[in-house]
Amino acid sequence: MADDEEEGGFGGLYEDGHWVWDESTKALLFVSDLPPQLIETIQVPTKAPTGTVEFRDDVDLIEQIRFRRRYQRKLKPGQAEIITVQDIKDIALYTAPVNILSPMLINMLHLPTTERFIRALVLYCQYYLQIADEMANRIIELETKVRTPQCEIVENEYSNNLSDLRLLVAKEYSTMLIGGGDTKKFHHMGPQKKRRSLSDKDARLFETLLRVCVQIVWLALGRRSFNQIELEMNRLFKSEIFNSVEHMLRTGYVSKMAAEERAVLLGYCVRHDKKLNTRSPLMNDVFCHRDIDYRMMGLGVIKCTQVTPRLLYMMHAVAGSEENLTKLGVVLGIIGMSRTAFDTMLRPLPTGTDTGKSKASMSSTSYSSKSSTTSSMRKSQLATRKLYPDIALPRKESRIMDFPPSFPDEPEDIRPCSETQRRRWQNRLMRLLHPQGHPR
C-alpha cells in the first residue's frame, strides 16, 4: 500500500499535477502543474457611428470613369435612358464608407420591399419639404393677414396628405419588422423566427440602413436640404426623444415651429408617452384613430379593385414603372427624369438658369448655428436649382370605402431588383475587405 500511495495515492505524483491537503478547507485539492490555459475572448465588432458617418460627395474624374465602367447600370436594348432607384442606390453604395457596408445590407437594399420603402420615403420627404416651404410662407403672411376658416381647411388637407404618405412608408417598414414577404431571412430571430433574438446585429443593420436611406433620399431630391431630411427621417423612425441627429446638432427645430406648422408637419397622431411606452411616429400613424382607406395598406403588393385617382397616384409612385412616371404626371424627385440631363454622379448639368435656395432649405440651415462648420451642414447649404415640379396629390374621396366582406388575395406583379447590380456590389465589397484574395 505504501508503494501504491507513493506512485498514485494521495501523496503521489501525476503526469499533470498532484494532490495537496488544504488546512483552511480541510479537504484535498488537486494542483495542476500545467501552465494556465488561455481563454479565447470573443471580439464584438464596434458599431459604426452611423449618426456621424459621412459619404463622399467629391468623387474625382478618375473615380467617375471607374464607376461608369464597372458599377453603373448598363442599359439593355430598348430600355429608356432614365434615372431609376437602382441608379441612386449605386451612387450611394459607391460613395459610402466601407465600415458601414455589409453583405446583408447590400442584399437588403436589393429587395422589392426595400425599393418600395425607399420610393415611399422619397415621396414623403419631397412633399414634406414642399409643405414646409408653404407653411413658412403662410406663417410670414400671418403678420399682415388674418386667419380665416379656409386656412383650417387647407392646412387640414396638407396634414392628411402627410399622414397618408407616412402610412405608405409605415406599411413597408412594418413588413421589414415582422420579417414578412421577401424580408423573412433578415428577421432578427431567423427566417423561422425561432432563434434567439440577435438584437445587437439587428440594431446595427437598422442604423446602417437608415443612414444609407437618408443618403439615397437626399440624392433623389437633387441634393437639397440634407439636414432637414436627416432630422425628419430620424424623428419618424425614432421619435423626438431618441432622435440622435437632433441630440447631436441641438437645433430645437420642433420647438421653434409655430403651432400651425407643428399641427401640419407633425400631424395630430403624435403621442407623448413615457419613454418605455413611446412609439415611433410611423407606428402612431398606423394605430391612429382616423379615417384610413384600407386599400393603402396593400398598394404595390395586392391588386385592388375600384382604385381612386389618389390611390393610383400613390401606387405608381411607390411600385409603378419608373419609365412611366413622367408620362403619368407622378413626381418622385429626379427618378424618372432623363439621364442625359445629369452627369455620372447624378449632378444636374449646367444650363445657365439657376434659382436660389428654397425657403425650406434656408430654414434648415438656420436650425443649427453651432455646427455650421461640419460637412453635413455644408450639404444643407448647397444651393441647387429646382429640378422637378411640386407634387400635386389628388384629393381624398369625401367618403372612405367600407371594409368589404372579403379582401382581395391576388398578388400584384412585383418588379424585381437588379440581380446583376447586387452581385457587382457584393464582389466590390469582398475586394475592399479582402484585397489579397480578390485581384482587381
What fraction strand?
A: under 5%
Q: Trace the largest sheet across and list its strands.
A: 1-2
Report the sheet with the most strands, covering strand number, pairing sense and barrel closure: 2 strands, antiparallel
Question: N-to-C SSE series?
Answer: HEEHHHHHHHHHHHHHHH
**Which stretches are low in confidence, meaning pLDDT under 50 for 5 or more residues running?**
1-15, 38-46, 355-384
Query: How many domain regions?
Result: 2
Averaged pLDDT: 82
Tell me the Rg in angstroms: 28 Å
What is the terminal-to-terminal distance? 74 Å
Number of strands: 2
SS element count, helices: 16
Look at the helices and sheets and give the structural class: mainly alpha
Shape: globular
Task: Identify the notable features of this structure and list them briefly.
440 residues; two-stranded antiparallel ribbon; globular; disordered N terminus; 2 strands; mainly alpha; single chain; 2 domains
Describe the structure.
This protein is mainly alpha-helical. The protein has two domains: 2-32, no CATH class; 54-433, no CATH class. Helix content is 44%, strand content 3%. It has helices spanning 2-8, 61-70, 85-95, 103-109, 112-141, 149-178, 199-220, 226-238, 244-249, 259-265, 281-286, 309-319, 325-328, 359-365, 375-380, 419-433, and strands at residues 17-22, 27-32. Strands 1-2 form a two-stranded antiparallel ribbon. β1 and β2 (27-32) form a beta hairpin. The longest helix has 30 residues, at 112-141. The radius of gyration is 28 Å and the shape is globular.
